[in-house]
Amino acid sequence: MPHVAASASPAYPARFRDPSQNKDFFLALTERLFIRRKVTPQEVARYGTYLWQGDSDADALALKFHDLGMVRQGSPQVQTPMAMLQQAVTGNLPQDAPRELEQLMKNVSQDPAWLDRRLIDIGARLSQRSGMLGEYVLSCVSLMGGYRSAAANKPIAFTGQLEYMAPRRLAETAKFGFDVTRTGAMAVGATGYQAALKVRMMHAHVRLMLDRSPRWRHAEWGLPINQADLIATNVLFSAVYLGGLRVLGLQISDEESLGVMHLWRYIGWLMGVADELLPENEEEGTRMAWLAGVTQPPADEDSRMLGHALMQVPLARAEGSLARAAAWLEMQLRSGFSRIVLGDPAGDDLGLPNNPFKYAIAFTTPVIFAAETLRRLVPGATELAVQLGDALQRRMVERPLAGKPATFTPPQSLKRESAYA
Questions:
Q1: How far apart are CA 35 and CA 233, in angstroms?
Q2: Angle 335-336-342 (CA atoms, 0-180°, nearest 5)?
Q3: Distance between CA atoms of 96 and 64, rounded to whole angstroms?
Q4: Whole-number Å distance between alpha carbons of 272 and 240
Q5: Is residue 308 one of the residues assigned to a domain?
Q6: Fewer beta carbons under 10 A from the terminal one: N or C of the chain?
C-alpha cells in the first residue's frame, strides 16, 4: 500500500493552492458566470485531503501483483497476474485468483444504487454523435487542460509516456475514450467495462512505482495519481467536455447532459474514484472542475513539454509536404481552440501559439449551430448523426493504432525523470 498516510503527513502537500490567492481571470469568470452554488471553504479544505488518498482495493491488488511478479515464470498452466486480470474483467474470475483480485471484482460487480443504464446509453449516444468535434474537445481541452497542473502531470512526465511516445499514447487514450462511450459498452464484461478496470489497475501500478521512487516529492505533490487528480480528470472528460462541445456549436439537451455526466460517474466509480466526489449533473461537475482548477499549482517545464508534445501529434503523423502543411494549420487551430476554452493564461502556461487562428471559431460555430438546428427538425437526422459520428470516431481511433491493439498495460519501469525531479 502507498506509504504516505494522511495522518502522518501535513494537512496538504505544498502543491495545494489557496483559492483566495489564485487570481486567474478565467477561473474567476467561470465562477461568476457558471457556478450558482459557490464552493465553500469547508469543501476546499476537504478536497485538499484527497491529495493524500489513493484507491485501496486497486492498490492492494497492485502490491499483490508486484509480489507475484507482473510476468510470472513457471509452469505454462500458471497464469501471469496480467492474464488473471484480463480473465477477471471479462466476468470469469480465475480459480487461482488472489484474494485481492476477488475483492476488487466483487466490489465492482455490484452496481451502485444510483446507476441508471438508460442514462448511460443516452450519454454514450451524445458522445458518438459528437463525432470529430468530440475528439477535438477531448484533445484540445480535456487532455491539454490536465497537463497545465505542475503536480498532476508528474506521473506522465516520470513515465515518459507522452514525450517519447506521444502519437501512440494519444492513440491509446483516444481508444480508451472511444471504448467507454459506445452504446452498451459499459455492461459488465463489455469492452468499455474492461477498459475502465484495466486503466484503474494501470494507475495503481504506476502509483506504487512512483510512491516507492526516491525522486517522488511527496511533501510537494502528495500521493501519485491521488483521488483529487482522478476526479479532476473525470470532470475534464464530462462537464468540461460538454462545455467545449457547446462552444463549438453542438446543441445538447438537458437529458443528454445528464446522460454524459451519469456515464462518466459510472466510469469514475469503476476506476476507483470515491463515490462522494463524483458529480451527479453538469452543474455539480462544473463546481468540481472549478475547485480542481483553482487549487492546482501553476504550470512548470513539464507542463510545457507535455503541451508541446500533444500539440505536435498532427505533425508527427503527417507524411509529405502537403500533409505537413495541413498538419501545421491543424496545430494552429487546435492551439487556438485550447486558448478559447481554457483561457489565454493557460495557453501561455502551456507554451501554445497565440495567433489569429483562434478566432476561426467565430465562423465555424454558427455553421455547426445551424446544422444542429436542422438536425433537430428533420426526422431521423439525429440517429443518422449518431451513426456517422460513431463511424468517424472509429476511423480516427483505429488509423493511428495501425492494427496494434491498445493494451492499457502499465509501464514496467520509469522511463525518465521529471524535469523537476
A1: 19
A2: 85
A3: 13
A4: 20
A5: yes
A6: N
DSSP element (H, E) containing 149: none
Query: How many C-beta atoms surround the C-beta of residue 346 within 10 A?
Result: 24
Which amino acid type is present at position 309?
A
- DSSP secondary structure letter of residue 410: P
* Residue 43 within a domain: yes
Domain hosting 367: range is 19-53+112-401
Structural domains counted in the chain: 1
State the DSSP H helix or E strand holding residue 376, giving kind and residue range, or none if neither: helix 361-377
Write the Ramachandran bin of 117: left for phi over 0, alpha for psi from -120 to 50, otherwise beta.
Answer: alpha
Write the pLDDT tens digit of every residue in 28-46: 767 776 777 888 889 999 9
pLDDT band for 162, please (50, 70, 90 cuts).
low
CA distance 398 to 396: 6
Could you tell me the CA-to-CA distances from 94 to 81, 194, 200, 355 in Å, in that order?
A: 10, 15, 19, 56
Q: Per the domain annotation, does 117 fall within a domain? A: yes
Q: What is the pLDDT of residues 263-322, one digit of tens each?
A: 999 999 999 999 999 999 999 999 999 999 989 988 888 888 888 888 888 887 788 889
Neighbours of 114 (CB within 10 A): 13
pTM here is: 0.90
Helix (H) or strand (E) holding 152: none
Which residues are CB-neighbours of 38 under 8 A, at least 6 positions away? 31
Q: Is residue 1 part of a domain?
A: no
Query: DSSP readout, 279-305?
Result: -SSHHHHHHHHHHHHHTSPPP-HHHHH
Cell numbers for 342, please give them.
481554457
User: What mean pLDDT is reported for the chain?
Assistant: 87
Q: Are 365 and 250 in contact (CB under 8 A)?
A: no
By residue count, the chain amounts to 421
